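User: Reviewer 2 asked us to show a designed sequence for the structure in our supplementary figure. I'm pasting the structure tokens here. Could you produce the per-position amino acids so we can include them in the response letter?
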């Protein structure tokens, strides 16, 4: 299931199939590790560090950081930051898509953020409750997307976020749906990953859900299936999941070797 191009200002010289919103959403939601840029609290110079990343329900990046790290001290002194997320792959690194977000960081103790981060990074359960660790939510302001040659976009980050009418209700829907899929539909999740996302087989699990897609995880691998149209309630979600399962089983019947 793919998203269609969104009506945003575009350079007519760019390829017609370049959808910066769909690509930006994918990179934002699918990448587990990013380069975090902060302003050094002592010198004022920019410092870049590596950090694990997950996303809130609306797509805002969330970080779990130690109070001993330079970037934590920097963010507490000046919340302005940037986050670079790159897909990577074989060949020229600059030929692969990457997304930079300009944002402001806010400390948070929101239990939904904790749950979603640990679902994406389960090994963090070993240290999440250490007294010096805390969560930051990055409030995206601007996005700079490079999807390869002649595929670039610079604009408001709101284009790739997922507005929520009732965040608490959606968090409840997401938690119940993720738990249900992992407990009762593990085989279907594996079909989603292998046949719809072209990933290796294995014990894939749902790690998150948002209006624009379903996130899957297997060890350090991630996969994402986009929803079109966006999912805002349980009825639409059940319909979309059923359609995805039918698509995956049809693909398996067509080529049982995949």
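Assistant: Here is a per-position design you can include in the supplement:
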């Amino acid at each position: 299931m793919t998203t269609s191009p969104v009506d945003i200002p575009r350079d007519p010289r760019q390829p017609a199939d370049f959808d910066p919103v769909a690509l930006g959403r994918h990179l934002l939601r699918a990448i587990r590790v990013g380069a975090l840029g902060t302003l050094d609290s002592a010198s004022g110079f920019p410092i870049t560090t590596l950090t694990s990343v997950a996303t809130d329900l609306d797509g805002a990046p969330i970080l779990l950081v130690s109070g001993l790290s330079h970037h934590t001290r920097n963010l507490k002194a000046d919340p302005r930051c940037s986050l670079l997320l790159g897909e990577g792959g074989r060949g020229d690194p600059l030929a692969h898509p990457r997304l930079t977000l300009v944002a402001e960081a806010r400390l948070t103790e929101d239990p939904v953020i904790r749950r979603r981060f640990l679902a994406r990074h389960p090994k963090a359960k070993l240290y999440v409750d250490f007294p010096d660790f805390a969560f930051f939510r990055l409030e995206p302001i601007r996005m700079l997307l490079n999807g390869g040659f002649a595929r670039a976009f610079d604009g408001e980050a709101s284009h790739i976020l997922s507005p929520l009418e009732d965040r608490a209700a959606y968090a409840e829907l997401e938690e119940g749906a993720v738990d249900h899929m992992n407990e009762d539909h593990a085989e279907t999740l594996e079909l989603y990953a292998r046949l719809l996302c072209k990933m290796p087989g294995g014990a894939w699990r749902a790690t998150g859900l948002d209006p624009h897609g379903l996130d899957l995880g297997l060890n350090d691998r991630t996969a994402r299936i986009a929803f079109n149209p966006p999912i805002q309630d349980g009825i639409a979600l059940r319909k979309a999941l059923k359609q995805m399962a039918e698509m995956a089983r049809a693909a398996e019947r067509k080529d049982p070797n995949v």
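For the response letter, you might also mention the following. Helices lie at 20-30, 70-77, 111-120, 167-184, 186-196, 234-254. The two ends are 19 Å apart (CA to CA).
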